[in-house]
Amino acid sequence: MKNLIDILDLSVEEIDEMIAVANDIIDHPENYREACKYKTLATLFFEPSTRTRLSFEAAMLELGGRVLGFSEANSSSAAKGESVGDTVAVVSGYADIIAMRHPKEGAPLVASMKATVPIINAGDGGHNHPTQTLTDLLTIKREKGSFDNLTIGVCGDLKFGRTVHSLIAAMSRYSGIKFVLISPDELKVPSYVKNAHIRNKGIPYEQTTTLDNVMSELDVLYMTRVQRERFFNEEDYLRLKDCFILTPEKMKLAKQDLIVLHPLPRVNEISTAVDDDPRACYFRQARYGKFIRMALIMKLLEVK
User: Fold this and answer.
1) What's the CA gap between 208 and 178, in Å, rounded?
2) So which residues are the catalytic ones?
3) pTM of the model
4) Digit-coded pLDDT (tens) for 198-228
5) SS3 label, residue 101
6) Cβ(221)–Cβ(168) under 8 Å?
7) How far, CA to CA in Å, does 176 sit from each of 38, 146, 150, 167, 210?
């Protein structure tokens, strides 16, 4: 039985295979409408989510399967003190596959040790968000045609942003990559992420505290919000939250074939005036998330 806890659980070949399946689903959805008939997905979301939870549910329903679960810890037995291990041991008896989000780093890994069905990490604290990364990879492949020879800017909260950490890990496996790390000093990429996936692999990178002076270099700009829930005090959040706002003026500095990604939700780090720019891919990206999750569910359930 295979789980997806970390994006590096998947080989480059497995990711390529899933992207090919996702593309085929986009082109021929009618071929997949009963792929998971009589299969059940449980969504165990101990932390709020809109896109991730609904795209998992939409993915399973479009494969002809069924969905059950909860969308907040307070509506589960976790509110009574039940452990994650006990929850998944029980839910394994009701479902064929489990997608789980939890505020504590490592919770899905613990769950995978107790589950008797595949576990998908749908986000664990500031740690990993592998299905968002699969969504990002499908978007980059569809919009840029290749993963090689790209300069990738990641901007905003690079310290707590689990989507950023997973994307850096995934993209570090391709050739000709350069990273541009754009953040306030307080929200830099953690050294363990930088050492494991950038420095140790000899990948060129630069760090900056301003967006304007690197816009012209970028092939991909990955924006993230400064997350209020990851801060220990309100003053730091209020001081930093508006540091990096993407505007039409900044977009004028960028390449014509730049793509702008964002895991969403957006607060105000991308001006709504950018939405009409054809280089703004974040709503297409959210849509692609359903298709790559369909491919992942099929892979983990070993459905052809």
Assistant:
1) 14
2) 51-52, 80, 101, 129
3) 0.91
4) 999 999 999 998 899 999 999 999 999 876 7
5) strand
6) no
7) 44, 11, 7, 16, 24
